[in-house]
Amino acid sequence: MPLKEFFAALSGELALVVPRYDARRLEHPVLASYGSIDALFAETEPKKQGKKTVVSPEGSAILVALVDLHAKTHDRLWGALLLRAFRPMLLNVARRLRGGSRDDRDALLLMSFHEALLRVDPLKDPARIAMYVRQETRRRVFRALGDELEWQDVGFGTGADLCADPKSPPEPSLLSRRWKASKAVCKGAPPSLLATAHDRGALWSLVRKEHAELPAKEQARIYRRLQKRRHRLVERLRDRERRSARAAVTPSDAVTPEVCW
What we know:
Structural class: mainly alpha
Oligomer: single chain
Largest sheet: 2 strands, antiparallel
Shape: elongated
């Protein structure tokens, strides 16, 4: 789901949690004075200050309270409010991401944001809480996206790590060996998991289809878990192919093996 569509859906969810916010805001001294979530978001909205865009001291105090409550309770209410409060930051970071599919980038960004909320200490430097969340989110999403692009470079093309010998069997035999290897290596794994390796965005589509009833945060966690599992399967298949290729090389051929990179 594109990020803008995600935030459009979030608006509907926020409308549903308004009664819960009204009931629970009085439990926190910072939130108690904001009688509506609209007033809350108006205070947390970044504002121009010279050449910089900053959050007011009152807005930072709200963010500290929300991050602290979210970390302690993992309540969906505080998570939804934080997503809306940091919407400008998330949209800004999303525009700077490159590589992969848009669905993958958006999923990695949301996942990184939720991880950053649990990683940042809101009491360390309350006045700069927005900056710390932004920095931690950016650091995590760029690293996660880099890992994703590195995995895509692994690929499943017809070329193996060792160049094919001119006397080697034709490609159908190679594909047959790969299929037999994949059945052994991927035993117990969902058949649809490895099939997503050929199509960018296919894994995210699979997660949304199989877990449509779960919130975006849970879908992102499932996506990342399956992504890591798929990566491990790919590496095991490649290792198996390397061993098979080395076993097929005769002693005379093994003197000067030619490596393709």
